[in-house]
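Sequence in, structure out. First:
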Amino acid sequence: MGSDGTARRDRLLDRLLGQGEQALSDRELLALLLLYENKPAAANEILDEIERIYGSTAAFFDAVGASDRPMPGLTDATLLLLRAIPSLCRRALIGTDKTGVVVRDTLHAQQLLRPYFVGYTRESVVVLPLDAGNRALDFIRLHTGSGNEVVLRLQDILDAVLPLHAKHLILAHAHPGGESEPSATDLVVTKKLIEDLRDYGIDVLDHLVFSRNDCTSMATAAPKGMLRFAPYKWE
């Protein structure tokens, strides 16, 4: 990269460090990354194509995670860097170990579980097993779906939570490309899991469905009387 590209990159970096990320537009933040691997003219062409094809930075990052080559012009090094960003953000948001935290209600559960779905472009399942006092025993990602569907299997859940002697459980999965409204299949599967897990002495408190900007609690949104979740309570 020539001196023009280095100078432009350094100007963007100075603004980022001096004024924070809010001082840069989405395009400028992405330009800062691209200028480490591309000349200014090439970086501008890539940015123009991203805006033309995807319309937003968020949509582009979804494509980066889901496609081997989301668009021409991106080098392997740039793709590797872009794919690392959501994982780094997710780890930063998860932060310190939350085991032992008492989960007070559905809003608290949403706050604890939301970071586990940042950057995922396919449906993913996370379970939060709790002890009798609603203290978090672990945050366990069971698996990631192959597309817009994921299968919740009783045996997978039991294998994850029985060794922890869980008494309560919160289920969570994401609809990364759609709404947080649970599907008819989500409701049917959840109803069966509540019943089956009760046979093992585990009460399901909620099943949360996350989308990019929202979260729906089945405990509050499901048709009245369809799902018999246990109430939140702690010692």
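Second:
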Amino acid sequence: MQKPVISRWLVGLTGASHDLDELELAIGFPVVTVARSNGVYYLESNTLNPIEDPSEVLNAAKRLTEMVNGVARLHFDHWGNVEVSNSIVGIDEQGHAHKFAFGFGTGRPVNESYADSAIIERWLATAVREERVANAIRFFSTPTWTNLYKIFEIVRDDVGDVVAQGWAAKRELARFTQTAQTPESIGDAARHASKKFKPHAEPMSHTEATSFIKDLLRRWLGHIA
């Protein structure tokens, strides 16, 4: 049997219904689209369509989904991550659907308003083009202390002194960096184990740190995207 020539890929998504509903409303761009068909949510992207191997589509879709989670967490006040499922549909040049399966194996407030989602398209388009942006957004999809610090390093490496840029207050930056680096402040989540790193007198909570880096990341993306 001749192997079908796939011209369009649809990758199944799983997650909380309100997260998926909000993605469908907010993300509908050529670079990434989230849409529902027959009760299933799918991710589609013009970056996936040239790929021939379904397993490569799956891996690329996982990376895109990390970016989607990152920009959603950046854009919305509340967010719970979505994931790629084991359902991939390839549409051939005649419009016929071909299914591919792979064996692998939240309660949060609903966003009450939706700002202009065109900014999401700019973020995603830039992330697809630029590795540093893709990494920063992917890291924000899982905002651990380590990932938050990585985002800070990406931004700092690009623009230098974020305080001089007017993107952060010196005191808040010191609270973030000292908290992130000292086990005395955050235990095993700290970047270092050495006691030579001294904690800040007013360490940041993880919630504060996430908010701090979210604001910094948004400012940086506004600068380059």
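Remark: Residues 54-75 form the longest helix (22 residues).
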